[in-house]
Amino acid sequence: MTLADHMNARVKALAPSDILEFNKEIAGIDGIVKLTLGEPDFFTPEHVKQAGIQAIQDNHSHYTESRGMPSLRKAAADYLHSKYGLDYDPDNQIVITAGATGGIFSGLTAMINPGDTVILPTPIFPLYIPIAQLSGAKTVFVDTSDDGFILRPDKLEAAIENSDGPVKALVLNYPTNPTGVTYAREDLEALAQVARKHGFFVLSDEIYAELTYQGTHVSMGTILPEQTVVLGGVSKSHAMTGWRVGIAAGPADVIDQISKVNEFTITSVTTNAQYAAQEALTKGMNDTDPMREAYRKRRDYLVKALPEVGLDVIDPRGAFYIFARLPEGMRDSWSFVYDLARKAKVAVIPGASFGPGGEGYVRISYAASMEDLHTAVERIGDYMRAQNRG
Prior knowledge:
This protein has 14 helices and 13 strands. It is an alpha/beta fold. The chain folds into 2 domains: 3-44 and 288-389, Alpha-Beta Complex (Aspartate Aminotransferase, domain 1); 46-282, 3-Layer(aba) Sandwich (Aspartate Aminotransferase, domain 2), CATH 3.40.640.10. The protein has a 7-stranded mixed sheet with strand order 2-8-7-6-5-3-4, with helices on both faces. β3, α6 (128-134) and β4 (138-143) form a beta-alpha-beta unit. The longest helix has 21 residues, at 288-308. 49% of the residues are buried. Its EC number is 2.6.1.-.
């Protein structure tokens, strides 16, 4: 018996991220094209970097308010209003978090009592699962693969009815990682009716909102403001993943509780990063435009090219992922990705990592250069032809 044996049982029960583990395993393959992690391949805009540098030079190196600098919270409120028609008071309805991940952790921790149920439509980015479980939640998965990867209200009602504990929260992420699917207004309104009826929270992770390619992003916060916590940030929109600045916005009394967890976890977000984010949200309102157009071209290329080499795709309307269906006979996604990495030197993520409905698919990130995408498609084509000959 060691001291480690006495540690938090919920933490000990968690497995490390299989996505990160796989990414490390294949990193040593010489010449591999990695289409794995969801991180922009662009650099932070120059004027945003300079704002962060200037903050250091101006000796802005002390704690800020735990909720974030008032000026940044106002910039966030103005940005959310301008972009998505959301109305939040920066004084009491917004907290600045350590990336959207920090918002997920603080949000679920503040919401959940042990034994509560959290509903997760799958396939979904797996990070939400261990965070919910750390708070003692029961996680209920709703497979959306037969519904175009959209959570339908009848499936949500069924999950609520079959839950053996009080349903405390529904997690939505859209545009969705890993599928690239997004929700139309009518989809959200139908889910909002169910949420009003049963009175649970909606944690709406909209970090990819600016990377919407068809139509306009509709925030759940405009439809169900009294029960929704909206998560956003600058990681994907401004290529600032490493700066770790997120936004959580919602009803004042709910944000009060989320702010407590945020304070006790991180004290406050890094000060110079907050100045950089303020620059991004004020003078960089349109910084995403050229990135989005580049992503759109890559998406359009892959949607056409992948079926030609044997991988069917769904229509990704946001984010920077293709969720590609494997052919019959190759439906074991873990076996497929390991074999593809070894034999074709292309790395993609197995769909099985994203929960029920993900097996038989792979996630391909197109946050990569067009040159790398062309190389990857060529290698995948060679691999698929070799498999078919075999």
